[in-house]
Amino acid sequence: MADSEQQVDLRLERAILDLLERRGPTASICPSDAARAVYRGDDDGWRALMEPARDAARRLVVAGEVEITQAGSPVEPTEVRGPIRIRRAR
Fold this sequence. Notes:
It is built from three helices and four strands; from the N terminus they run H-E-H-H-E-E-E. The protein is α+β, with helices and mostly antiparallel strands. It has a single domain, classed as Arc Repressor Mutant, subunit A. It has a four-stranded antiparallel beta sheet with strand order 1-4-2-3. A hairpin with a 2-residue loop joins strand 2 and strand 3. Helix 1 crosses helix 2 and helix 2 crosses helix 3.
């Protein structure tokens, strides 16, 4: 992995944790929230960070930091399809 990709990955992980920290203990975020927080432009280039943001969430699930949910219920990160939310691990 290129060094700049690794930096973006780490920034996305940090953004997910920071966004969750600023919200209530039961709140969740969308991966787009993290992508927008990390993207440094004024256009919709953050969309290119959507899959990396989902990957960052998957790594944080493995680390025991967060859960990925659909319809309010935890889902297996490797099997999820479609829109997701991210919340603190319970």
